[in-house]
Write the structure tokens for this entry.
Amino acid sequence: MATLFAELPAARLSSFAQWRALTGRIVRTMVTKGELVVAMVTPLVFTLGFYLPLRYVMKFQGIDYAQFVMPIIVLQTMAFTMMSNAQVAAFEAMTGLSTRMQTMPIGTLVPFTSRIAAGLVRSVTSLTAALAFGHVIGFRFVAGLGQAVLFCGFALAIGTVLAIGADALGSLTKSPESLSQALTLPTLIFGMLSCGFVPERSFPMWIRPFVRNQPISQFSFALRDMAADGVSWQVLWVPLAWVTGLAVVFIPLAIWASVRRS
């Protein structure tokens, strides 16, 4: 970091140049540590772990499970990107790197936006791998290119909003290990208690309202329609409201956590 901005006082870099340098540093670290390889392997694990055991059960129910399960596989990979962002933010806060950058002539939001941009690289890598593995098992975009683009854009928007919230938690807790454990449990709970892996009718009556209305199920409904015949506004507005609401909460929190003096 010292060498990265060694000449900064003499020739002040633009905020864009600073952002590019910091983003590049995080991405290079992800490459050297094999994090992008993990980002590609994770959707494969989800695909094999859920599609192979359940495809015949769902086939008896008249469900094309490749089409049914791919949205939740994509969402789960976005959740793991969220946890990676949290760990990066927590590591920078724990080691004092965030405090050190606050004393340097660097744009206030540059470190935060660089972490989010690097997380987006990880999300795109995971999404690409997930769609490739999905194609192998029979997942297709039936509604055409426009809905396919909407599918990818909406998935990345969800992943980015979650990464922003996780970045805030990482900056505040300063503990990568405990934060990873804390985020894993709600990710699994919301994933399993959703309509992503099985239809709503597979759950007991008493829990169906929660399963149907929680955000992961709503995201799955929209993504599933985008991949099928195209999503309608009647289906899209609820998950869109969830994404917008989470962004309204997470973005100010993440900015405050990133710029505050510890």
User: Anything to note?
Assistant: Residues 65-94 form the longest helix (30 residues). The chain has one domain: 65-259. Residues 65-259 form one domain.
